[in-house]
Amino acid sequence: MMMEWLPLEIQASILKLLTFSDLQNLKKVSKHFYHLVTTERDSWLRDMSLQDALPCSKSLFGLLWLSDNGNIEAQLKLAVILLYSRTADNAPTKTAKLLFGLEKSGALTRPITHVLIRPPWSDARICRKEMVFQELKKRALDEDNAGVCFSIGVIHLRIERCLDGKKLSEFWMEKAARLGDDNAKYFLPEMMTRPPGWFGANRFETFAHLESGTRLSRMRDLREIASMNCQNAKIRLCGLYALGHHDGISAPESRSVVRSFFAESKPAWRKSLFCFQHDIRPYMRFVLVDWLIEVATLKSFGSSMLHKTVRCLDEYLRVRRVKRKSFQLIGIACMVLCSRLYENDVLSVREAVWLTDSNFTYQDLVLRLAEIVAALKGNIQRTSILDYLQVLSKLKSINNNTASVSGFIADSTLLYADTGLFSCAVVACCCLLMANLTVEPDSCPWNEELVAFTGIFTRDLRQPAIALHENCISMKNPEAMKLLKYFSLDERHTRSSGPIARTDIVSYEKLLSFFEAEESRRDTVHCPLTSSTVDSHRSAVIAGDSAAFEDCNIDTESETPHLLSSACVDQAHTRARKRVGGGYQNGALVVGAGRESESAGDALPQLKSVKYT
Questions:
Q1: 395 in Cβ contact with 422 (< 8 Å)
Q2: From the CB of residue 348, how many other CB atoms can be counted at a distance below 10 Å?
Q3: Which of 206, 277, 384, 566 could be bridged to 307 by S-S, CB 3.0 to 4.6 A?
Q4: CB-based contact 10:20 (threshold 8 Å)
Q5: Per-chain mean pLDDT for the chain
């Protein structure tokens, strides 16, 4: 073949473009390709995608070979399959070895072991997960592994709701914290003051009951952990700042931290999911998410777990093409995983199969669990819309009724397929804005406090808020109108927080009128500008004299930058001159007759009001 004559470097580059199944078939072509594929040790093997490459008699050797070469997907798939296998020889030892190696390699963004072997365990004499747990403990005592130590500590909290279990958990958490695990550093102080069996409840509990010195020390530790990019610590720190607990820093500095946290939120994807998915349509996702909401209501799962489930589903749809016959299986598999992470009462594999009316088998669901964990590289813990909304709801200006309505709107956004085109922070702000318009229609729904806290302006919320209202609340989309009968969300919130329905939310027309009023308000300046004051602005900017601005006493709208650049002032001069037919004479701005007030309104459209003393 012609390819055999090419240099080995070029042949290796071509191999990078092949899928796992193509590589498996290529080995059968000739001894040359068999030798090339099986002896290749390039780094691309670690990042090779293994879509639909499930462990079976035909692909098992290839997966083992990729696993030995450090491929994360292969290692995760093998670990999950061995964990549920009843026929594999020495499966607990092999599973523990794979999980231990994965956690130690640093390839995972967060520990995943405590999710995969999470209790409750079987009452039978031999439980595979319990055997893996004991094997991991033996390995962790002999060799340092921060991720495994953290997972062992979490599992002890789950299975032993007594004082001895808490002490064992603290031992493993302390070891994980010494080895540098930021999650262990975050949870360890909480464990010292909580009863046995606690894990992750009430993340926004204040430190008001502590002494001032202890409270200050805890806040400093929390800031340090948050600086390590620990999402749990960031969310709690921002929630405490929203409650007014600054402890050691000023209020402007705390608001700056929160703004940075909101700015980190980026859209999950740039194009619609369905530009990538060929066999799945938006209405199919709508029906699936509505069914998942019904399952969550049946199991009394919280909204946080529901948001994480849909986020996990969307992330999987972003990286893997899905066939419609397996779409329901993927959705319930995501819920099985997220329930193990966020709920006390988990959704078991057998129960999940029963909920699908036995359309799938136990083995089908286990294989899909392995595929999802592998495709997401074990990262199923992602920040959701509800995380940002919970931070916003801690502000003193947000009452309980507003928080409840905003939670309903946030849950409604799960039904919209293209919510990921907007960042989670922006969607959370849209939910709060619509809730404010619903509960307090006469007040400003997005005031200066919210702008200063989030760094997000009203103009940033127009497009996403209208899109979310059209597709989730008013259902103006013709395709969405057909799905009105699928709306388990109304029943879920009626049970939990009283009668709330889509019809109670602010109308589409009122939302549009609010944004139109905001645009017209931004384009209006409430007092005229004179030539002397405009020139004083320009001179102050050029000279860098901040005192000159203080003397002018400018009150700007929240969207306006704190300082005007010289280019901005020059642009204002030019626009005013063009509109009123005026110009400069002896260094002063001359305004045309009959349009002085209009020129003043057009000169600096970003200013809300200007007062001069």
A1: no
A2: 13
A3: 384
A4: no
A5: 77
Contact status, residue 358 vs residue 284, Cβ threshold 8 Å = no
pLDDT digits (tens, 9 = 90+) for 204-215: 565 666 777 888
Q: Which of 355, 98, 101, 592 minimizes the C-alpha distance to 603?
A: 592
Q: Max CA-CA distance within the chain?
A: 97
Structure tokens at 555: 């009150």
Instruction: Give the integer Cα–Cα distance in Å for 75 and 48.
Output: 12
Location of structure tokens 């009150």: 555
What is the CB neighbour count within 10 angstroms for residue 260? 12
Structure tokens, 442 = 């006469």
Which pair of tokens denotes residue 12?
């290796």
Compute CA distances 76 → 370, 443, 519, 601, whole Å. 7, 52, 52, 63
pTM of the prediction?
0.79
Between CA 42 and CA 62 the distance in angstroms is 16
Specify the 3-state DSSP secondary structure of 610: strand
Q: Identify the bridge partners of residue 588 per DSSP, sorted by sequence position.
A: 585
Q: Which residue has the higher pLDDT, 138 or 602?
A: 138
> Over the stretch 394-441, which tens digit does the pLDDT of each residue have?
888 888 889 989 999 999 899 888 888 999 999 999 999 999 999 998
Determine the Cα angle at 184 with ends 178 and 186, to 5°. 115
Three-state secondary-structure class, residue 379: coil
Instruction: Enter the DSSP assignment of 428.
Output: H
What does the block give as tokens for 61?
């050797």
Q: What domains can be seen in the chain, in order of their start residue?
A: 41-193 (no CATH), 212-263 (no CATH), 273-375 (1.10.472.10), 385-521 (1.10.472.10), 523-610 (no CATH)
pLDDT above 70 covers a percentage of the chain that reads 72
Query: What is the SS3 assignment for 609?
Result: strand
Burial of 21 (0-12, 13-18, 19+ CB in 10 A): middle
What is d(CA 223, CA 210) in angstroms, rounded to the nearest whole number? 17
- Please give the C-alpha separations between residue 281 and each of 267, 308, 322, 506, in angstroms, as whole numbers: 21, 21, 11, 29
- Strands 554-555 and 583-585, bridge-based pairing: unpaired
* Whether residue 515 has pLDDT greater than 70: yes
Q: Which residues on neighbouring strands pair with residue 610, listed in sequence order?
A: 554
Give the whole-angstrom CA distance, residue 394 versus residue 405. Answer: 14
Which pLDDT score, from 0 to 100, does residue 473 have? 84
610: phi then psi, degrees, rounded to nearest 5: -130, 120
* Cα–Cα distance, 29 to 494 (Å, whole number): 63
Give the closest residue to 91 by CA, choosing from 82, 81, 103, 101: 82
pLDDT in tens, 236-250: 999 999 988 888 889
Report yes or no: 463 and 512 within 8 Å, Cβ to Cβ.
Answer: no
